[in-house]
Amino acid sequence: MIDPVEFKKTLNKNDFNFFTGVPDSVLKHFTNTLDNEESIIAVNEGSALGISIGYNLATNKIPVVYLQNSGLGNLVNPYLSISAKNIYDFPVLFIIGWRGKPGQIDAPQHFHQGKVTPDILKLMDIKVFEINSNNYSGIIKNAKSIIESGQNVAILVEINQFKDYKSINENSCEMQSIDAINIIKQNFINHYFISSTGLISRELYSVTESNGYDHSYNFLNPGGMGHTLPIASTLSKFSNKPVVCIDGDGSLLMHLGNLHSMINIIKPQGFKYFLLNNNSHDSVGGQSTQSFEIDFKSLVCSIGEIKYVKIDSIKKLKSFKPEEKDNYFIELVIGKRLGEKTHRPKEKYVDLKQQFIKNISAE
């Protein structure tokens, strides 16, 4: 396995000293070695590319952009429209966590993305290398030469390549995500539920399973980070049954403009948006989102007409009784997860979707 500290030192020796990107579970042990002076965590991958361009303009040095391959979609347009060779020809080294690599055991939402990842990069005229503990040093050295000669480079890293290196982001909040979801599910049992990527959907599935509730009321969104809110609010607009959306702080920040769309354009009815805010990219390594620095009440209420509620305890959550017809933004201040066991769905996602649609059709 690759020692993440030695990996970072090798990058530094080859004059790669600035890093920006979106945290990823595959790369977390490497990115956890980076401090705030040398790394900027971006809200999405396209923004990370923009940060890298600003760095290059200011310093004339080669930046590093890290991401999971699921985030390539956010990156393609700004790269081809700004950074590509026939536009501004900005240099960059990509370090990409390769989820769903063919032959690996992985979650279903990663399979197609994993299969096409190398081809997407090659179509973008980016040189692709796959690293391991034996070859990474030479590849990093070679990457610098290739970039300086005029072609950008992507390093693909498959699952379990890095040794452990834990995050130092702390959070002392007592309310836990899975406990909060359990209470929300109990309090809004007759609502449709739309849940965000990563651990939130697993927690909703596990809570539904353990309580013996009907999975046909849940739509789990295992991929497409940042897109849960438009799915949920549009369902709320056209459904005869009320809708609950459970999202995370990293997901909301990735496509924050969805708040404006939801409040002022989509305009759902009786919509409850629960933001599980633990100031953390908790499912991919625990890196800070800095979301505790955001005054969500001022932000949300400045966008348009919606009720804001902040809840920081299970007791307050249990007693929360919203008006049926009003739209709510409920910020739940929670702690970093303690490692509770949750379950991925045993059913195929397409079967869960059909159950959900059948439930809606029966209204």
Read across the widest sheet, the strand sequence of neighbours is 2-1-3-4-6-5
Q: How many domain regions?
A: 2
Instruction: Indicate the multimeric state.
Output: single chain
Give the fraction of residues assigned to helices: 25-40%
CATH superfamily of the largest domain: Thiamin diphosphate (ThDP)-binding fold, Pyr/PP domains
Task: Determine and state the CATH class of the largest domain.
Answer: Alpha Beta
Termini separation comes to 53 Å
**Total DSSP E strands:** 14
**Largest sheet, strands/sense/barrel:** 6 strands, parallel
Overall pLDDT score: 92
Residue stretches low in confidence (pLDDT < 50, at least 5 long) are none
Rg, nearest Å = 21 Å
Distinct helical segment count: 14
CATH architecture of the largest domain: 3-Layer(aba) Sandwich
Q: What series of H and E elements makes up the topology?
A: HEHEHEHEHEHEHEHEHEHHEEEHEHEH
Shape: elongated
Strand content: 15-25%
Which fold name fills CATH's third level, the topology of the largest domain? Rossmann fold
Q: Helix/strand/pairing class, anyone?
A: alpha/beta
Walk me through the structure.
With 363 residues, this protein is α/β, with parallel strands linked by helices. It has two domains: 4-157, 3-Layer(aba) Sandwich (Rossmann fold), CATH 3.40.50; 177-361, Rossmann fold (3-Layer(aba) Sandwich), CATH 3.40.50. 40% of the residues lie in helices and 16% in strands. It has 14 helices and 14 strands. It has helices at residues 4-13, 28-31, 45-59, 72-83, 108-123, 136-148, 177-187, 199-210, 228-238, 249-254, 258-266, 296-303, 314-318, 349-361; strands at 19-21, 39-41, 64-68, 93-97, 127-130, 153-157, 192-195, 218-220, 243-248, 272-277, 280-281, 287-288, 307-311, 328-333. The strands form three sheets. The protein has a six-stranded parallel β-sheet with strand order 2-1-3-4-6-5, with helices on both faces. The chain has a six-stranded parallel β-sheet with strand order 8-7-9-10-14-13, sandwiched between helices. Strand 5, helix 6 and strand 6 form a beta-alpha-beta unit. Helix 3 (45-59) packs parallel to helix 4 (72-83), helix 7 (177-187) packs across helix 8 (199-210) and helix 9 (228-238) packs parallel to helix 11. It is elongated and about 60 Å long.
